Each structure stands twice: as C-alpha cells, then as structure tokens.
Model the fold of this input.
Amino acid sequence: MRGGKFGEGAQNDLDQFLWSHVSSHRPSAEYLRVLEDPNFDTYLDRLIESGQVKPDVAATLRGARNGGALYASTYSPKVERIRQQRHEGLARVNAGWLGLAVTGVVVSLVLLWMWAPAGCAATTIVIALLVLLAAIMLPSLGAARRTARQMQANTEMRGLAQALELDKQAGTPSAAMDSDAVDSQAASPVRLRQWFPETLLWRPELITDDQGRVSLDIDLADSITTWRLSASAVSAQGRLGALQSSLRVFQPFFVDLNLPVVLTRGDLIAVPVVIYNYLDRPQQVQLTLENSDWFTLLDEPTKQVTLAAQEVRSVSFRFRADRAGLHAFKVQARGDAGVADAIQRQIEIVPDGKRLEMTQSGSLARPVTVTVDIPSEIIDSSVKATLRLYPTALSQVVEGLDGIFQRPSGCFEQTSSTTYPNVLVLDYLRRTGKNAPAVEAKAQQYIHLGYQRLLGFEVPGGGFDWFGRAPANQGLSAYGLMEFQDMAKVHEVDPKLIERTRQWLLKQRNADGTWTPESHMFNNVRHGSDVKLSTTAYVAWAVFGDGQSTPQALTTLNYLQDAARNVESPYVLALVCNALIAMDPSGDTVRPHLSRLVAMAKTSSDGKMTWWDTATGERTTFYGSGRSATVETTALATLALIHTRQSPTAIRGALAWLAAQKDPNGTWHSTQATVLVMKALLASAGKPLGDGMERRIELQIDNGAAQQIVIAADQAEVVKQMDLTPYLPAGTHRIQLRDVSGADVGYQVAWRYHVPSNAFPVARETEPLTIDVVYDRTQLEVGHTLHVATTVTNHMIASAPMVMLDLPIPAGFAVSPNDFDQLVQSGAIAKFQLTPRSVIVYLRNLNPATPLTLRYGLLATMPVEVTAPPSKVYEYYNADLQGTSSPQRLIIGQRI
Done:
C-alpha cells in the first residue's frame, strides 16, 4: 500500500506530531479526540489548504480514522524497530564523540603542560573545558529542541480539539450541524467507489533480495471487506514456505448495493440500498439515486433515512429496465455528521425474446462481401455487430484464449481448455523468440492455475477421469499426458506425474500392441466402426509422442501400419498418421497413408478450401460429432501434413477452411477441436508470425465512403476489432472488405439480435434435445421458496454423451447448492457448477426416449417482477444438438 515518506526534509512540527502518533502503539488523548471527531475531514481539509498538514500525512490520517490503514499491523513494528535502532545508534555516536573529546582534551592538556608557558597553558585549559562542556551538552540540547517542537505540536492539536468542542457548543458556521455547512458539504464532491475486483492482486512471481525480503505496493480496491492473502515461496535451495493472512478495509459510514448480476429488458425491481452507520452517534442520511436514460424510476430519487448509532438499514429504489446493454447504477449518501459515501456498480440488461446469432469468417486473400440481414421485428437495442481482423495465425489463437473462458470448465477436458491453448502459445513464443509480454504474462498465469486444478482429476493408482473418480479413462489420460508433456516445455511439471501416467497407459496395452476401448464413461454411445484402431492410435500418439521411439513402440507401430491400409474413415486415418509420426519422426512409415488421406479430402468449388468430413453418426475419440468432428478431423489431417511437409496446396486450403469455422467466441466449438486447430495454426508457422509488415484493409458498408483500417506491424499478434452496430439498422446491408497490403489477413463478421419469442417459432419435434421447466407458482413473497422441476429428453436414436444443462437463476432469486449436492449423491447428475447467473449441470450421458427430471428450489430474496430466462440443454461435444425452454414471468411480493 502506498503511504508516502515521513520524517524527511523540512517538515513542520504538526506533520511530525501526526506521524509520530500514526506510527505509535499508544496515541495521545488529543490525537484520538481529533481523529474521532465527526468534523475531522472538514478541519483536515482546512489544514491542508493552509499548508499546516501535508497531503500524504492527511491521507494516512484518513486511513487511520476509517479503519483502513495498515499502520496497526504493518507500520508500527517497523517504525518501532527503526526508532530503537536509531536511538541505539545515536547513543553509540554520542558516546564516541564524548570519548574522542575527552581524549583530545586530556592529550592537549598533557602536551601543553609539558611544553607551553604557564599563561598559554591556562588559556588552553579553559578552552578545552568549554569544548568538553559543549560536547556533553550538544545531545541534550538536541533532545530539548525536539521536546519543544513536540510540545508545540501537542499545543496545536489541543487547540484544534478545543476548537472542535467550542464549535459544537456555540454552533459557529464551521460546525457540521449548521445548515450552511451542510449545504456546502452537499455541494462538494464525494469520492466515488466503483472498482470492485474479485481478485485484488495476482503476482505469480516475486524475486527477493539476498535476505529474502521484497516490497510490493498495492492499490487497494473500493470494496469494504476483508481480503484474504495467500502467499507461497521457494528458496534457491528448494525450501518451501507459505502464509495465510488477511487485510481489513473498513470505514465507519458507507453504503452498498444488492444488485442482481443481470436483468432482462422490461424487468421491474426494487433494488435494496444498505446504509451502514458504525459511528457512535445517530444521524440523518440523505440517499440519492442518480437518474439515467436506461431505466425508468418508479420511486422518489432522494430519500431521508434516520439511523441510530451502530445501525444498519436497507432502503429500496424501484425502477424498470428499459434499454439493453451494460449500464452504471450510482447511489450517494450524505449524513448530517459530516460523513458521506458514493457507490457505483455495473449491471447488464439483456434483451428479451429469442437470440439469433450469425457469423462469416475466412481470408482476405481476395475481396469479400458479407451480406447482413437485420429483420424489422428486432427488439430495441439488441443488435450487436463486430468486425474482427486477424493479422496473423497467432492473433487468431490469442483471441481463442479469451473466448474459451466463456465455456464450462468443470471436467478434466474442459479445465484443460483454459490451460492447453496457453501452453501452445507460450511454447510458440519461446520457439520463435517472439516478444509479446502481455500475452506471455496472461499465459503464465492460466497455466499455473490450470496445472494445479488438473492434478485434482488424477485417480488413485494412476490415470485421469473426467470428474476425478475411479476408474480412470485411457483416452482422457492420453490427452492429459500430451498436455503435461507440452506444458513441461514452458512450466514446471512434476516428471513423476508424466512418467506415472505413461506407465499406467502402457500397463493397459494388450500383448498385440493395441488398447481396448472402454465403455464405462458414456454408456451406449456409438463410436465409429474402427473404435479399437482409433483408441490405439490416440493413446500411442500420446505415449510415444516424445519423439523417441522405443522397443516398446514396435508392436504398436506394426499394428497401426497394417490396420491403416484398410481404413476408410478420414478421422481414424488422420489419427493413425499422427501416431505413426510420433513413433517414427522421419516420416517413412506414414507417407503412403498420407497420400490416401489427401485423396479423401473435399475441396470447395473455387479450390481455395480443403476439409475432411466424418461419416454420418461417427464420433471421435472424445465423442465429437457433426461440425465439431469435421473440425477435429481436418485439424488432425493438417497437423500430419505439416509435420511431413507434404501437399502444401492441401495444407493452405485446410488452414483457410479452419479459419472460416470460428464460432462467435473465437473458438472452434469444442475443447478437442479448439486445441487441435490451435496446434495446426501454430505448427504452420515456420517463422515468427509477426513478419514486420503493416496491414491495410479497406472497409465499405453499403454505399458509404470506403475507409482504411491500418494495423501496425508491431500489433500483428493482436486482434483488430471494430464495432459495426451503428451502421446496421433494420434492413439488408453489404459489408465489403479488401486487403490492399497483400498480407492475407483473416476476418470474421459476427452479428446477433433478439426477436420476440414467437417471431420465428421452432417446432419442438425437430429439436434433438428438449428441456421443459415447470415452476410450482409464478408469484410468491420474499423469503419463500419457488420449487422447480426441469425435465430433459433425448429424442435421438443414440445416447448423447456429456449433456450440459444451463439453468438460469432469475433476478431476485438465490439457489441452494444443497439441492444439487443431493442430485450428485443420488447419481442423477455427474457434477454441477454454481455461477452468479446460472447453475451448470453435467450429465455423463442421456439415454434416448428416457426423460430425466431434476427438482430444486429458488429462494425469493427481493421484490421483483422479472422474466425468467430460458433454460438450455446441449451436447458439449456438438453444441448444434440443443434445445431451449420458454421464458416465464415471475413476481416476488406485490406488483411493482
């Protein structure tokens, strides 16, 4: 915490007095009287203006008064230690000077007595005695001067305390009780608290000095809370240390808002504003809500509240949310005791109705025209359109790092989705020597956190499971092994973990070099016809993926070579090719099979794009199907071709096709697909992707004037983003893009809007998965529980693996984790995640034509009249297989 420097330079006496008390264990009575006075801030401002108190001292005093200063736990011991050291040092110096003076005087007297005349000797003796007296008295005079200055400062502080008392008794204009003073204070600005981070500081690495000490300044947030401090350390000798502590941030008068995370346009709500008066006196508080155009206030904007000493009260403001977007909600409170506080928090208002989302992606190797249709039925303020430009392949990957955090992360594979891509990016930066400090710092942070979380999914005895429960899964363990091997290149990874996982997988291998596919993860889920071959190829790719073929790999190598000759599935053949490359990096054994793989590719009519399809109903090793499976297959084939430098035309076409498959979040629909595409994109770069070239893109919307977008050469790793929303009212629009620099920039135009729920009805019988939500009532009182029954049904022929339920928590309600804990214990669900907006539920699989009903409760917490958002069900490995429920209106309390 930044506090300023004291006791240096020509500071006045009052400064020294104040700081001496701030750093003392036993403040004086005068100091405490002034510090606790309600008019403290007013007088301190006057002292600052008059120059009697320096601003840094005033800041420390205010912190001490509000309970947020660190001096009590941090600075006092340090100041006391320094004072003691200074006292002991001065004592030694004074003793030294005195001894030197005495010695000098004695030596001088002896010499003069022996050789000087009598008169001269007498004069010398007198001078020597005067010098000795001065040496003795000098420290005492300094102490007396400091005491005088302290007494003067004490007098000034006593005078200040007496003035405060006289003001109270006489009712002078400076007293806080006076109406003119209140009006003056009301006109003065109040510090606005608006920064409320969940994590105040994350610093993965600090280097200490040789004594193990390091200093760090921290800017505290605006939260009135107790921060939890966790620190760990490791010495050069490998010794470990850890610390758990806390930091309390407090002020005796403040307000807080109990805002919901999100509202739907048209929701009505009575937002509680809580006033905390921890002062030892009652006060009248004026509470004011700042009006804004995004809501309609259904209440008075200013309210008067009377609070007793040490009282906490809640007052509500009623309003209706009118406009979608991210908005600020600001409240200010002023008490008649001279205290005030203001707080501002953000709230998101989402459009009502049904959300429709479209994208178009690709390369600007040739001019592109994107047609955007915005229907007339759109809901107000719901349109959002964005143009993203990707100067290099790395910029596409970097965008995916942020977008992937919007996906669930409750199982091993999903947790790795926030870790593995960062590993790949950091490895690329190290390999190419590219300098991208911001990207590298973020990657390091997520790798460190992800590694710790991934360890929790290891099963006793070896191997990993989706939820960390025995038995372990071969395919998932192989995926984890690949991830940890790649992670070890850029981050500390326990070598025993890697070897333990490799040995566990080798123990599962059959005598003929194969791995038998498992069925205990997702029951009745259909894989392709070559499931044994695909399982063996995937596990072998991981086990022997260190580039060092061993005699252990020979039997598996022979099996894969023989089996690959008859493979008809592009996915399985692409997997086999990558496994053969892992066991034989020279590429001799894989080339014949790669030729067959290239022959299986599909090409666009213009010859610019290449991809590999999967068979209807076929699933990948990680249960991907449909579009996700095609992306996985194309990425795997591209990786094999890049490693062997075979068929450059197919590689270019495949990379172009993969770039065009991006979803609006900047990812590729599933964890496996995203990781494999990122591997292919980064492997395609033989040199640093930032080639020192400036990019220039020409943009024209409809018949408007063309404008040029310039991307500097040093910004090649960053996505260039432009908001197109203001240019796209209802109607049909043509967006034309042209790369005039010849750099082959990637692009994506993404747009979305909401329409009324009945505008484009979807037949329920066409949805592969459906979800129905039934509330036992639609109106209840605060403190009562709303009982919910959610039923999901799989209308497909085959079982659906890893089905996800997104169950929203309506504004004004809270959900109890106990209900979902019981569902986990009963085996109805595999896992759940509680977020501020919804409950994410994991089902290992959902059998066809067998409805599953989940029951849970929602506690009513505040008066609202809101639209409960639709619930959603989807398959994690193929998000195109999904269904949604209908929104419903819920009322807590009387109608607002």
Observations:
- The longest helix spans residues 118-170.
- Residues 287 and 333 are 4 Å apart (CA to CA).
